[in-house]
Write a structure and sequence with these properties.
The chain is α+β, with helices and mostly antiparallel strands. It is about 25% helix and about 25% strand. It has 11 helices and 17 strands.
């Protein structure tokens, strides 16, 4: 039976609730919470695939000073291939993260199926004495746990769907009395062993799919108006009554059914990068590609087909396949700063941080402000909480070669 709110362990709700800062303001960081749910299951060959995934998350709070990223403090690593991982999945927690939250979890413990994404707490709730991080961290924690205990793969029903995952976690947050009120945007994906990815995006967080030297896809933000994104919300009845009687600020409240859903086919070496608006307000998709390209070329994962301008960017397929299948242990920590997904996530996070603090560099947010409100004269970046999740698709060599064989016509 696939997990629903009623099948989520009560322990989830204890772990799901934490605390943090705002909307024009945000804070982030990540730490995996130990939650022994159950041992990974064995899967039949029918549930297996040729793709596995290497992931990382990076975060920085609005008020966190710029610093050299450190594993376990500023970035966190994860793989779909690590058996008996402790903790079994990655999720942000409040001691290390602000209002931006994130998660990554194998679906049912399968090495070929992974759910990952992020949520951005709406800081405007602070004006009413509500901590927005409770909602965003609670939602991500519940999405991580729900994905991990999903039983559909065992039963032949397939993987969890991202919109369904968001709905299940959203209902749990609404039902949890410890999360009094709040709201957040949410953006997530579920990938399987065939390289198929389905996404659900609600609000102005979002993602890009990057292939060698190009942006293969860029999600579109959902907004009511400038700087007013679609958002999941929990407005308690008392607050609704007070607003009806005395008036007050309106609370936008969408549901997971209003999320944009899309399907994509990943190829070996494709990079999926999710980020909150702390990145997208300060970096364009093209900026992000430039940052990623620099990392990929410096470490030999991408290279030019010829030594002249305009040469095609190529993938070092063998090097991508050599990415570690485990990311734990004392010995591993010595090499953590060379793990590709971590390099990518921290590079984007740091550049967004620098751009947000730059008072002269006009990023996407500044350009939008000056377009809609030219009288404001906004200059420079927009300091904010930042969260980034990176997933690299890795395909088995044998299958990749099989797909490249020419198809012979029957005469």
């Amino acid at each position: 039976m696939s997990a629903t709110f009623t099948t989520v362990p009560a322990s989830y709700l204890r772990y799901a609730t934490r605390t943090l800062p705002s909307y024009f303001n945000r804070t982030r960081s990540i730490v995996a919470v130990e939650m022994p749910l159950r041992q990974p299951r064995a899967y039949s060959s029918a549930s297996k695939g040729t793709f596995t995934y290497r992931l990382a998350a990076a975060a920085s709070g609005k008020r966190t000073p710029s610093r050299t990223p450190k594993a376990g403090q500023d970035y966190w690593l994860y793989t779909s291939t690590q058996a008996n991982a402790t903790p079994p999945y990655l999720r942000s927690t409040k001691p290390n993260s602000g209002e931006d939250a994130f998660f990554a979890a194998t679906v049912g413990g399968s090495p070929h199926d992974v759910a990952f994404g992020l949520a951005d707490g709406v800081g405007g709730w602070q004006d009413q004495g509500i901590d927005p991080s409770e909602f965003s961290h609670g939602l991500c924690g519940l999405m991580a746990g729900t994905a991990y205990i999903h039983e559909g793969l065992e039963e032949g029903k397939g993987s969890v769907r991202p919109q369904q995952l968001m709905q299940t976690a959203y209902e749990a947050v609404i039902a949890n009395p410890r999360i009094v009120a709040g709201g957040c945007t949410a953006s997530l994906a579920v990938v399987d062993g065939k390289g198929s990815m389905e996404t659900a995006n609600l609000g102005d967080s979002g993602f890009v799919i990057l292939s060698p030297g190009k942006i293969s896809y860029r999600s579109e933000p959902q907004t009511h108006a400038f700087n007013t994104p679609y958002q999941l919300s929990k407005v308690p009845p008392k607050m609704q009554q007070q607003n009806a009687i005395f008036g007050g600020s309106a609370h936008f409240s969408e549901t997971p059914k209003q999320a944009d859903v899309a399907r994509h086919q990943l190829r070996h070496g494709d990079i999926v990068l999710f980020a909150t608006d702390g990145v997208w307000d300060n970096l364009s998709a093209q900026d992000t590609l430039g940052i990623v390209t620099k990392v990929m070329e410096e470490h030999g994962y991408w290279f030019k087909s010829h030594n002249f301008a305009g040469a095609e960017t190529m993938l070092n397929e063998t090097l991508v396949r050599s990415l570690p299948k485990r990311v734990d242990g004392k010995e591993w920590l010595k090499e953590a700063n060379a793990y590709l997904p971590g390099l990518l996530a921290t590079a984007v996070m740091r550049e967004a941080k620098i751009a947000g603090l730059d008072t002269k560099r006009n990023g996407p947010f500044a350009k939008e402000v000056n377009l809609h409100y030219p009288q404001e004269g906004w200059r420079g970046g927009k300091p904010d909480d930042i969260a980034v999740v990176v997933c690299v698709a890795v395909q088995d060599a044998a299958q990749s070669k099989e797909e490249m064989k020419p198809i012979k016509a029957k005469l």
